[in-house]
Amino acid sequence: MDIKDFRGVMGNFITGVTVVTIPGDPPHGITVNSFTSVSLEPALISICLDHSSEADEKLKEGINDSYCVNILAADQRWIGEYFANMGEVEENPFEGENTKVLPTGSLYFEDSIAYIDCSLYDSIEEGDHTVYIGKVRDAGLLRPESEVLTYFRGKWGSI
């Protein structure tokens, strides 16, 4: 199988767009579309991070054992682009957007559709990514009326 073909097939699966924030000074963020609910009891979610990412390195170091998933609204595309190192966005969203720090030390963007704050529950290295399982500590629905930011066939969109 050709990896380019596989990538093309996966690009035909529409995903929502999230930004995962990791506590620190300064905090760190990464755009992630490999995010899913794992379990309701206990409440668990998963994200997948490329081994070459700084976020993966920070969670592996074990200095921080928490992260927050921010579900982005369509009008937050620039935040997704910034943390994916796409486009020419120069303004750091941590400086230009309203954020709130949670008890775990993670932060969320107050204009996101929702957030899910987690402590690290487990991690599994598979291929070129690590699957991080997070135990949900807090979650909030902030802007349920907003259109969600999507990614499909290499293009940003909304629903």
In short:
The chain is an alpha+beta fold. The chain is built from 4 helices and 12 strands. The protein has a single domain, classed as Electron Transport, Fmn-binding Protein, Chain A (Pnp Oxidase, Chain A, Roll), CATH 2.30.110.
What do these coordinates show?
The structure is a single chain. This protein is of the alpha+beta class and 159 residues long. It has a single domain (3-158), classed as Electron Transport, Fmn-binding Protein, Chain A (Pnp Oxidase, Chain A). Helices cover 17% and strands 45% of the residues. The chain has four helices and twelve strands; from the N terminus they run αβββββαβααββββββ. The strands form three sheets. It has a seven-stranded antiparallel sheet. A hairpin with a 5-residue loop joins strand 7 (99-101) and strand 8 (107-109). The chain starts with a helix and ends with a strand.
Q: Which terms summarize this structure?
A:
Pnp Oxidase, Chain A; 45% strand; alpha+beta; single chain; 12 strands; three-stranded antiparallel beta sheet; 159 residues; seven-stranded antiparallel beta sheet
Low-confidence stretches: none
CATH-wise, what's the superfamily?
Electron Transport, Fmn-binding Protein, Chain A
Number of E-state strands? 12
- Could you say how many structural domains there are in total? 1
* Name of the CATH first level: Mainly Beta
Please give the largest β-sheet: 7 strands, antiparallel
Strand content: over 45%
Mean pLDDT across residues = 94
Oligomer: single chain
SS-based class: alpha+beta
Helix content: 10-25%
Count of individual helical segments:
4
CATH architecture: Roll
- What value does the Rg take, in angstroms? 15 Å
Largest sheet strand order: 3-2-6-9-10-5-4
> Based on CA inertia axes, which overall geometry fits?
globular
